[in-house]
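Figure 6 in text form: structure in, sequence out.
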């Protein structure tokens, strides 16, 4: 029997995340632990928590898991693992160890598929230099997979959502459109070529981008996942108390993403993300609707969005290109806090 995981879910990958508005709503009731060694906690909505062990060492700790984003179990494992590890990279950390988190419907799928998912995850972990040292599996439908990852970081070299400075340029390291293309695949609107391209980007580790950030002592960054480019940019603007301008026409796109959106292929998660950013955003007059919805598109294992001082931006870009992130480009800039946090222009 050929397993097709995509047929088992309505929303896979990071578009299965709960809406950012609901998340903020219930996080309000969560008591924040007080401890001077918590260097990054829940308050700033960062990609991972950071806990100081000594003056030289802190742990970056994160978890992500989600339902299938593709049909093939092995590729699903690869993508889920790359996505989970990314939150360590976006903080500037070095991922070291991980645990598997698996939910698997043992009565509906052959156990081989479970093994394939884990194999895909293990292979990407190995590529990242991460040792998987345990895990936990629950019988559940639909399947879900991801990792809890621990990384090392120097306590004074943490890259956060709150590190954006007025004047910084925003560089995005991967093209956008995974949510649109996955939805298009389900609706038989996306081409196989675009689906392959999207999977290739989702499997690509954000490691080389993180190395470039460390080399240039970048202070502010995040990775683009379920809340879309606009949602993550907004979280960064709020945490840094700055405003962020994005030139939507500069956003690099995977394959036919624009055409798919133009033909109405807009996943539900995009509307949730729009609802989340709307009040804090200024949308320029005559804003292109398709580009606006692309900025809302939930990405799975998306690129890094980094805040780069203008004097080093050319060098950062050329290093990113040399590292194989050939579509890295400046998509906007950070300004002093203005009336709104987010300014979207064509
Ligand atoms: Co993240
Ligand atoms: Co995450």
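Output sequence:
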């Amino acid at each position: 029997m050929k397993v097709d995981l995509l047929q088992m879910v309505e929303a896979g990958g990071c578009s299965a995340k709960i809406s950012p508005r609901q998340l903020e709503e219930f996080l309000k009731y969560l008591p924040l632990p007080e401890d001077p060694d918590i260097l990054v906690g829940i308050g700033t909505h960062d990609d991972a928590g950071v806990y100081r062990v000594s003056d030289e060492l802190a742990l970056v700790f994160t978890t992500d898991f989600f339902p299938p984003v593709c049909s093939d179990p092995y590729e699903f494992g690869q993508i889920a693992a790359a996505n989970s590890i990314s939150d360590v990279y976006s903080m500037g950390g070095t991922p070291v160890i991980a645990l598997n988190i698996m939910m698997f419907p043992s009565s509906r799928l052959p156990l081989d598929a479970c093994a394939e998912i884990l194999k895909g995850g293990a292979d990407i972990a190995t590529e990242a230099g991460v040792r998987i040292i345990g895990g936990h599996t629950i019988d559940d439908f639909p399947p879900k997979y991801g990792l809890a990852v621990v990384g090392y970081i120097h306590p004074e070299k943490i890259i956060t959502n709150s590190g954006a400075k007025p004047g910084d340029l925003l560089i995005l390291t991967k093209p956008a459109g995974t949510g649109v293309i996955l939805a298009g695949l389900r609706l038989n609107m996306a081409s196989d070529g675009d689906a392959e391209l999207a999977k290739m980007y989702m499997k690509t580790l954000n490691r080389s981008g993180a190395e470039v950030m460390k080399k240039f002592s970048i202070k502010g960054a995040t990775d683009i996942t379920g809340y879309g480019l606009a949602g993550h940019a907004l979280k960064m603007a709020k945490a840094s108390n700055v405003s962020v301008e994005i030139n939507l026409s500069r956003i690099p796109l995977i394959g036919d993403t624009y055409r798919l959106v133009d033909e109405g292929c807009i996943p539900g998660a995009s509307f949730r993300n729009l609802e989340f950013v709307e009040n804090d955003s200024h949308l320029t007059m005559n804003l292109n609707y398709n580009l606006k919805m692309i900025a809302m598109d939930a990405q799975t294992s998306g690129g890094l969005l980094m805040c780069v001082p203008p004097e080093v931006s050319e060098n950062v870009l050329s290093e990113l290109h040399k590292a194989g992130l050939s579509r890295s480009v400046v998509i906007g800039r950070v300004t002093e806090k203005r009336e709104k946090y987010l300014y979207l222009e064509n």
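Caption detail: The domain at 5-153 is CATH 3.30.1330.10 (60s Ribosomal Protein L30; Chain: A;).
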